[in-house]
Amino acid sequence: MAQQQPTQEESGSFKRIAVVGFGLVGASFAGAVCAAHPDTELLAVDVDERTLAEAVRLGWANAAVKPDDPAFREFVQNGCDLIVLAVPVQVVEGYFESLAAWGYEGIITDTASTKAHVSAIAARVLPHPENYVPGHPMAGSEVNGIEGARADLFKGAHWILCPDAATPAEHFPRLHELVTSLGARVIALPREDHDEAVAVVSHVPHLMASSLMQLACRHADDQQALMRLAAGGFKDSTRIAAGSPELWCGIAFDNRDALADGLAEVQDIIGSFAAALNAGDRGRMTALLAEAAEARRALPAAWVPSTERLLEVRIPMEDRPGVVAEVTTITSSVGCNIQSIEIDHITSDSAVLSLVLTDEGDIGQLSAQLINAGFSVSFSPLTAKEHTHVA
For the chain, what is the radius of gyration of the CA atoms? Predict the structure, then answer.
């Protein structure tokens, strides 16, 4: 049977996007979309009139309105196919309620740094919670608001997406295509694992940076001589402490349990250093420092995958929910980066999931885990030139 042609929705492109919250992340996202997809119609929604005026002046929105403006509802109900909520967690529920009342059935994603609470709200409020795909761009700046926004903010950054078993198969490929077109790289995580992961790599480090600044402030003299000595590594390691206190207080309490666990673990680690020092145990101190140094050196300096060494992975899809989420999560878990993802529809009830991977991660582990999960998998090398014909 001839392969079915993809619909507009399956092709990945978004025609009308509403970005709710035009702060640092929301405005940067809009700027990036306008640069990469100039034909996309974009509506800016924000409570601040000056921000709305700036959004239009920068050319990052075709129109800009407040949340209570009837134009917002009209845009949502007339062909909007993606809502991006770049707002604090505490106001998400109100927007979900509005979208539910307006009968919106397109894709919804967000940029919040915690997922458990928002996912619970979506399940309770939205008539189609499966259309909510949690998102979290791991990029930011110490400059808040639209003033700190940049259209290139996400280039080389990680962008977490959290599909689950209920997520429609085409949603992840569409969002993946959009996000990667902005220069970001997608990592798929189960939403139940997200908050613990970002507590370790983002939320605990922020409080550690704030703690270091507290330490320095306690020992600074009236002439601030100590602060003048803090222009090197100390300044770099505490840069994020300049972020919005109100924003980070909200994040801390949104992710309270995972953050508290992470801080307790850090206290234990610091205690190990203190114990070695108090005991005069140079061997233990050296071992602790060496373990950290080795792990730090193992971090990649930058995302520079080879564009000439690509691998295509083709997986026949069974007609069951959660296949895309399961495959993409396994792929991320072994460090493989998906450059593109497509669903090739063979018949009305069968398809092949096609992933194009860069030269990163453990392909052997990927193959083993996919087979152990019950998938039939085929791998074939693919040149960048060939990829342009299948993407």
Answer: 23
Is the pTM above the cut of 0.85?
Answer: no
**Three-state SS for 119?**
helix
62 and 152 co-located in one domain? yes
Count of C-beta atoms within a 10 Å radius of residue 209: 17
Tokens for 129, please give them.
């919670």
Q: Are residues 148 and 200 in the same domain?
A: no
Residues 163, 208, single domain; the answer is no
At 56-96, the pLDDT tens digits run 999 999 999 999 999 999 999 999 999 999 999 999 999 99
Tell me if 9 is assigned to some domain: no
Cα–Cα distance list, 304 to 188, 285, 363 (Å): 19, 34, 18
- Structurally, the chain folds into a number of domains equal to 3
- 317: which residues sit within 8 A by CB, 6+ positions away? 169, 323, 324, 343, 350, 351, 352, 353
Task: Measure the CA–CA gap between 339 and 203, rounded to whole angstroms.
Answer: 28
Cα 314 to chain centroid, rounded? 25
